[in-house]
Amino acid sequence: MSANFEAKKAVVEEIKEKISASKSVVLATYDRLTVAEVTELRGKFRNASCEYKVYKNTLVRKAFEELGVTGFDNDLNGATAFVFCPDETSGCSIIAKAVKDTPTLDGKLVPKSAYVNGAYVDAEGVKKLAAIPSREVLLAKMVGCLQAPIANLVYALNAVAKSKS
């Protein structure tokens, strides 16, 4: 076998490992991004424990096929970036926030689809995922909701105690 074939086979294995290890994989068009914009995006993804990579579409298609995943054939064309994430929403959120905060990215960085917990998510679904707060924010809201009745009871009891003194 040729060295080129072996190299491609190794890349397909790498992609399969990354897909399997990630809770979500976001596919996005990155057409006409400058080096500075890509570097800034990579930093944002790195801070969220995500990995931004660019692979040949044919190799990613092969990795998806070997994993038994279908539905991505239409999205694997043109300039495509892949964001491998340890959770379901961070990659989508970072892309949406980057486009919102940096007007020059509008139209250059466009989510195509995602692979979330073993399921295909279309571009509309990616936008909906981006609107979901992060796990930490949701947990903080839940703790606040659980803490509020107890705190109100303490304030009421304290007010009663002060009024009797």
From TrEMBL:
Keywords: Ribonucleoprotein, Ribosomal protein, RNA-binding, rRNA-binding. GO terms for cellular component: ribonucleoprotein complex; ribosome. It comes from the Bacteria. GO terms for biological process: translation. The keyword Ribosomal protein applies. Belongs to the universal ribosomal protein uL10 family. Forms part of the ribosomal stalk, playing a central role in the interaction of the ribosome with GTP-bound translation factors. Part of the ribosomal stalk of the 50S ribosomal subunit. The N-terminus interacts with L11 and the large rRNA to form the base of the stalk. The C-terminus forms an elongated spine to which L12 dimers bind in a sequential fashion forming a multimeric L10(L12)X complex. Pfam families: Ribosomal_L10. The gene is rplJ. GO terms for molecular function: large ribosomal subunit rRNA binding. This is Large ribosomal subunit protein uL10. InterPro entries: Ribosomal_uL10 (IPR001790), Ribosomal_uL10-like_sf (IPR043141), Ribosomal_uL10_bac (IPR022973), Ribosomal_uL10_bac_type (IPR047865). NCBIfam families: PRK00099.1-1 (NF000955).
